Amino acid sequence: MSRIKAKRIGFRIDMTPMVDVAFLLLTFFMLTTKFRPPEVVKITLPSSHSVQKLPESNVLTVTVSAQNKFFMGVSSQQSREKIFNAVVKSKLKNAGLPAAAIADSLKNFKLAESFRVEGDELDKYVVMARFADPKLRPVIKADADAGFEAVNHVIKVYKKANLLTFNLITVLKREVR
Amino acid sequence: MGIVDSPNGRRGIKKGRRRSKRIGFHLDMTPMVDVAFLLLTFFMLTTTFSKSNTMEINIPPEMLEVKVAENNVMTMRIAGDGIAYCSLGNEVPKKIPLYDANDTRQLSLSGELRRLLKQLTADNKKMVIVVKLSEKAKYKQLVDIIDELNLMKIDRFSLDDFTEQDAMEVKRAG
């Protein structure tokens, strides 16, 4: 064998800086990652040029699916509990459920991102949510194929609950003019 | 690979014997580094810094009524057939397609409609655009119209209910 090869066999490299950087990145990504909760229904958002971002907390989302079904979600768990106690609890009691079952469904309700709401009950829930948290920021997340009738219903509900400023969720459109 | 020299790697020059044994120690960090990089790639690939974009909309309270002169109002009626019926004041509505016919992805409003909106607002600074969508219209059309108005920096517009009378107006246009 040649001399040069024999010299190369035992070579070492100081990997400390690389490992440092790798761990730094690793901790960053681990701490910033928030896994997206599973969606109840798939929504294809309409596109727009708006670059305004969605607020992070105190969001009241009314989702309108492509089949014009309504789903409602509140971001804070305290508000969810208040809504449950005000609206859902009495309904379950009337249905004759035992207290343990009600407590169990409250637990599920607090963890769920959103729940199905009938169109004519939406105003009750929205008013209750606003009552639970007056600083709530209303948001409409509707599918691009949703009918205007359904969206208009949500807008009217917001109007009735005196929520006059709200946001429509869209995705940024990639298109050059 | 993966074997790291301790920072003070001068072997066996120091005084005490006990110490000199510890100075040159090696630790095989390969498995740790492997796992770290595996996790790193996983988190880098799964992370999307996704925050949805939104558009903000203000609606007037129910009791409030704003009076605007009739010739300062442009009414845009969307009947659900992909055509915007635009009328100034009380005149017979003009039929303008909402999207260009060759624009299959329908990302923006038709050039004709854009030109009309631009021209109207440039001619008359007091122009108010009233958008009326019928129940057969799609939500996407609403978003596209609002987006277009926002892009043109037209903030004098409002949404209104589509009434029977509006349906008559649409019929009047033929």
Account of the protein in words:
- Chain A is α/β, with parallel strands linked by helices and 177 residues long.
- Helix content of chain A is 44%, strand content 18%.
- Chain A is extended, with a radius of gyration of 25 Å.
- In chain A, 27% of the residues are buried.
- The mean pLDDT of chain A is 81.
- With 174 residues, chain B is of the alpha/beta class.
- Chain B has two domains: 2-46, no CATH class; 70-173, Nucleotidyltransferase, domain 5, CATH 3.30.420.
- Chain B has five helices and eight strands, in the order βαβαββββαβαβα.
- In chain B, the strands form two sheets. In chain B, strands 6-5-4-7-8 form a five-stranded mixed beta sheet, sandwiched between helices.
- Chains A and B meet through helix 2, strand 1, strand 2, strand 6 and helix 6 of A and strand 1, helix 2, strand 3 and helix 4 of B.
Strand and helix order of chain B: EHEHEEEEHEHEH
Oligomeric state of the chains?
heterodimer
According to CATH, what is the topology of the largest domain in chain B? Nucleotidyltransferase, domain 5
Uncertain regions spanning at least 5 consecutive residues of chain A: none
Q: Can you give the mean pLDDT of chain B? A: 76
- Described by the principal axes of the CA atoms, the overall outline of chain A is extended
**How large is the share of residues in beta strands of chain A?**
15-25%
Number-wise, the strands of chain A total 7
The helicity of chain B comes to: 25-40%
CA radius of gyration of chain B is 33 Å
Largest beta-sheet details of chain A:
6 strands, mixed
Q: How many domains, in number, for the residues of chain B?
A: 2
The CATH class of the largest domain in chain B turns out to be Alpha Beta
Give the low-pLDDT segments of chain B.
9-17
